[in-house]
Design brief:
- This protein has two domains: 188 residues, no CATH class; 199 residues, no CATH class.
- The two termini are 33 Å apart.
- It is mainly α.
- Strand 1 and strand 2 form a beta hairpin.
- The protein contains 19 helices and two strands.
- The chain is globular, with a radius of gyration of 23 Å.
- The chain has a two-stranded antiparallel ribbon.
- About 2% of the residues have low confidence.
Length: 482
């Protein structure tokens, strides 16, 4: 989160009638804007699909393929997301900007190869034509690179560039994909989608190349430094499994229907998924503002006293103030998340109840479960991010494991035993995450001095170079193609 804090505090210090709204808007554009705009593009595809001459089966296949590509690319990128973010933060903090571009090229190349193998094998059993196969694989690879590039862009606060790129891409999709599909060109919408996301990727990579020092070689050093924070590397994939695993089970449960080969859809489950997913994004924006504006000054003062050898009384006072502010802001976040979740559920039920007969079976009941589950997850995610803020990577990994196991296990059971309650598995896993993460944070507070200053140093001393050879081997392999 380094970098945004200064801007947010400056906005709050303005003390204007709209300073708070400006801070929320600024944070939303940086952290959730790209995802919201991505969902907007998917929605635009669905709208355009209703006004084409392509048959309904082909339209459904394209829409389902886009959903799979987004879900799969997010899952693949989660393998390196937390690791790359930490490496990027270290490089910026240590003023080693010349290492950033090599890490971007290396992580992108690694994801491209893995994606081509894994998703390429999946598409072989999706019942697609050769032309559709290539377009779907291309879309998946482009999306994977976009999610990877977003991490580098948010670090330099290029939110305006990201937003403009997505808006221009929407125009490309409408101008190219819409007419192509309307004229009956099979896969026309998919072609437009590939061009739109391709344009976004070109704009993003251009901004990255302009900002960071020029260095076009590949470096897998970020893998070799996993030794320093090995537990952190597993948090991303585990959270992804817990957050989206229930969706995969829904796609292959009795709620679903076949589209083409392994491609399936679950209309009653997919109906409310996008709306429900807005809730944890609201919690993330609130958390960033709370931490950077109110908590960070106390956090910074606490460490400053240690570095300047403050006396015992001043250190204890700084620690108490820091934790009091943290508890207060987390309390505010919980109430805001509860209110936002309740309001969304009430509004959606009022709007959709009169139309329930025309909606997919059980969709409204599942929507309420999803909204409640994702609302609770937003609170659990705030506690998890706080543990990461204090570098409790081992605790975060343990919680992510429990969250993933509960979400996957209960969803697998409910998908066949009680499909109408499928989302309750994710709901219960989110409740467990909140309860356990809160307990972990409370225990952390009791040993704050030891954990923050003593434990990381001991962990660093005991680490082993388990990933050094892997990084070297990958560099040798990719060097042949440079």
């Amino acid at each position: 989160m380094a970098g945004i804090g200064f801007e947010l505090r400056k906005i709050y210090d303005e003390q204007t009638p709209l300073s708070k709204e400006k801070a929320y808007g600024y944070t939303s554009l940086i952290y959730v804007g790209p995802f919201l705009l991505g969902f907007f593009l998917v929605g635009l595809v669905q709208v355009l699909a209703q006004f084409t001459l392509v048959d309904a089966a082909s339209r459904l296949q394209v829409l389902t393929a886009i959903t799979y590509a987004m879900l799969g690319s997010l899952g693949l990128q989660s393998l390196v997301s937390y690791l790359v973010s930490r490496y990027l933060a270290d490089c910026l903090y240590q003023d080693q900007g010349d290492k950033i571009l090599p890490s971007f090229f290396a992580s992108s190349a690694l994801l491209l190869v893995l994606g081509a193998v894994l998703y390429g094998l999946f598409l072989l059993f999706a019942g697609l034509s050769p032309w559709a196969y290539l377009l779907n694989l291309l879309l998946f690879e482009v999306l994977t690179l976009i999610w990877n590039a977003i991490q580098y862009l948010t670090a330099i606060q290029e939110y305006r560039s990201i937003s403009k790129a997505f808006l221009l891409a929407a125009g490309i999709l409408a101008v190219v994909g819409g007419p192509a599909a309307y004229l009956g060109l099979d896969q026309g919408l998919l072609i437009g989608t590939c061009l739109a996301y391709g344009f976004i990727l070109i704009r993003m990579v251009g901004q990255i190349l302009l900002h960071y020092p020029s260095n076009h070689r590949l470096s897998f050093e970020f893998l070799s430094r996993v030794n320093d924070y090995a537990d952190l590397a597993f948090v991303g994939p585990l959270i992804f499994l817990g957050l989206y695993g229930h969706v995969v089970f829904a796609l292959y449960s009795p709620l679903s229907q076949s589209v083409s080969g392994l491609l399936r859809q679950a209309p009653s489950y997919d109906f409310g998924l996008l709306l429900a997913f807005l809730l944890p994004l609201f919690g993330l924006v609130t958390y960033v503002i709370s931490v950077e504006v109110f908590f960070y000054p106390h956090f910074h003062r606490f460490f400053l006293l240690y570095n300047k050898k403050g006396n015992y009384l001043s250190l204890r006072q700084a620690e108490r103030e820091m934790m009091q502010v943290l508890q207060r802001e987390l309390g505010y976040l919980i109430w805001k998340q509860v209110i936002a979740t309740s309001l969304l559920m009430v509004v959606l039920n009022l709007l959709l109840l009169p139309m329930e007969a025309s909606l997919p079976s059980q969709s409204l009941f599942l929507l309420n479960q999803l909204c409640l589950g994702y609302g609770i997850y937003g609170i659990g995610n705030a506690y998890l991010l706080t543990l990461l803020y204090f570098a409790d990577y081992r605790g975060a990994k343990s919680l992510a494991q429990i969250f993933a196991l509960l979400s996957l296990g209960l969803s697998a059971l409910l998908a066949w035993a009680a499909p109408a309650y499928l989302a309750c598995g994710f709901l219960f896993a989110s409740l467990a995450l909140v309860f356990l993460a809160r307990r972990r944070l409370a225990g952390l507070q009791e040993q704050m001095t030891y954990h923050v200053l003593g434990h990381p140093a001991q962990a660093a001393q005991s680490s082993k170079d388990r990933y050094q050879k892997l990084a070297q081997q990958l560099e040798k392999l990719f060097a042949k193609f440079e």
